[in-house]
Design a protein that fits this description.
The structure holds 2 protein chains of 2 kinds. By secondary structure, chain A is of the alpha/beta class. In chain A, the strands form 2 sheets. Chain A has an 11-stranded mixed beta sheet, with helices on both faces. A two-stranded antiparallel ribbon of chain A has the order 5-6. In chain A, helix 15 packs across helix 16 and helix 19 packs parallel to helix 20. Chain B is mainly alpha-helical. In chain B, helix 3 crosses helix 5, helix 3 packs parallel to helix 6 and helix 6 runs antiparallel to helix 7. Classes of the chains: A alpha/beta, B mainly alpha.
Chain lengths: 570, 205
Amino acid sequence: MKLCIVGIGGAGGKVTQEFLGNDDLDWKWLSRMTKAEYISPGRIKGIWLEADKNDAKNIQSFFGDLNEGAYPGFFIPHDAVQDGSRLHVLVREKYGYDVKKQGFVRDAQYLKAIFEIFDTDEEIQRIAAEMTSGAATQALSGVLDEPKESSQGQKVNNNHTPFKQNPNPIFDGAWDVIRPYTTLGGGECDGILFIVSFGGGTGTGFINPIINHIRNEGKGDYPVFVLGILTEMGDFADRSQFSKEGRRNLAAISAIYDLLTKSNGANGVILVDNQTMMERFGHDYATANKFIFEIMQPMVAARDYPGEVPPSQAIAQHFSGGLSRPPLFVPLYWSQARGADPEEELVRNALSKGKLFGCAPDKADWAAVFCRGFIDSEKIRQALSAQTGLMPQNIWVLRKMGEKDDEILIMLRNPYGSDPEAHRKEGTLENRFCKVITLALQYMNQNVEDLFYEGKESEKPASTGKEESIKLTSLAKGALSRFFFGPEGFIKDNFGKNEGFAFELREARRRLRAGEKPFFHYPMRIFEKVNGKDEGKEVRQETLGLDEQRIMEIVNNRVDQRLAEMGLIK
Amino acid sequence: MELLTLIAFILAAILAGTAVLHIKTLNKVHRRIEALEHKRVSKEDFYREMTIAQGSNFTALALAAWMMLFVAIAYLYLLVPTSLPYSYMQIPVVASSLIGFFIFGIIVAALAAIAILALDKLLPEHYRGLKLTELYSFYTLSKNMKKFIGLTVPALSFSVLFSAFIGTTYPGRDPLAETLALAFLVVSLGVLVAPIYKEAWEGQR
């Protein structure tokens, strides 16, 4: 497993920085002589995608400008669209969205809408194709043909060249800078780990469109994981993020919703709660970022046990195997001084003191355990099975030789559900998500004008010094209103009763309270496709997949219950 | 026995101890991995997974440091016949040359390089553990440790310079120069072998 780490947004970039430190001596005079390669732990490669050019160029010094050949580098995706270009002007005039907008307003819906505009609007697709190179124009001709499946399951057009989706300079540009690090572009990385903050600006908005973009490129089986840090409760983060608690929670839940409902999305969404991090580290974000790097080492570092070197593809298949939706993972981490027979203690401490997101370990349906040190995988399996009730065959252990301590990172898959009281208990996933959804719904109710960016001017001016403001057109407003509240639109204190995102959030909260799993069901779009695929049919197909998954879960639960009654498992 | 001679034996013992500990550590880890995997693991597979890239800047400096170490030892002990019965002074052709010290240093460095490269090229994969070029790739080194190892190159250069000074003033003796040459040498050796001793110490837990 060799990952390309892609940090998105401010927080994502800071965590990514920890992964991309140079292991070699970075003495410039020597590097010139030896032509030294930049070596990061685990031979990881990566980049930082950022929306705020000023932050990227002037506030930090770790990442250089990728356009100037720097490594590690940052990339500003919306730079791909020229200021005042036909495309820039057309999107603004037709929809009101400014595709070059930097900073605060990049909430989940903002970039989702832009992605879907490029995905659905043929006029914009045509201009985007004209503006890009000949290759892109050629690609557009591929778009006009209905894609088919190749013998390897890859989407191809009628000329049997890899299927290229509708040109979208923003996401094409971002993917073009990521791809060379991956095996898809001749690089060494056999998977991508996106690191984002759920609730921030850029990361929250960018994560789903970029994954959709990768998948739509015909890279349906390329391993993609997301490590997301959910925004904390309270108002502390507001000062730095220029965003109120409710707004951050709405952005977070929107991003997570999209991630967990796309059947061909990420292979796993790893959640870390910033609330937990703050309880450990206070407001020391630098130490918290280092800690996130440390906890991921058992998964991403080098020195695997011989014969236990899974490619990312295998990990992705195990992570999402048998599920029709991307699974949610809660990491539990513990490290202790090297000692004899550490397995049981490691598992016990990880379960009791190492949770990085509230959860009920006994509700998990599967677990991947990444260890470092001299660890017996069978003992780990037995210990975890005994302490959580997970069947040993549902525990996958991978080991690395490690450094001075014994470490364990348990990734529990979907560790929630089947407890109607769980949402009342602090420290459960249901409780945390119910709070996030409630805050998001309250925000929608009290700040409906914000959802349409009305009367909103940037608190964070663009680097050009120009005042930024967004005035959505009636076309975009209508689409957004339908997306949020369904056809009936917003009704103060009584919205989202039948359809729309607000309705789905209420439904999700109801499912969480009822102990149902999963709690998000249907993928949602702001702009529906006029031609092409039947969205409704897709949803119905996905619903069918969901039913199968639900049936599998019920069967598994019944089998577990029966085995427990027979005394064969705990 | 003179102090310098006594220290020569200690240096030799440290170097021999390093080799023994390095091999013992690798074998011990290999045995533990085999026991934990409940199967035979070939040395080739084991070494392939255990080694990590430390970076070409560091590797270049580490190799230069080891070559400089052998040059510094040769300069301190073989330039003048103070500690050992054999010395550079017994080879009149080189000893009387204007660039004799330089030639002597180059010869020692070349011999060290040949030995290191020979080990690197001739040893089969299952003896990778014996290759000096890959010595540090078996260990986890902090950035500071790498910097210290890199800094042994100038430190050993100082040792060589002081030894050259001793050679120039021979048969006169300068205790300060001898002490400084020895100190730079001992400290550098200590830094170069520290990761191996540290790992062996931690591996006892």
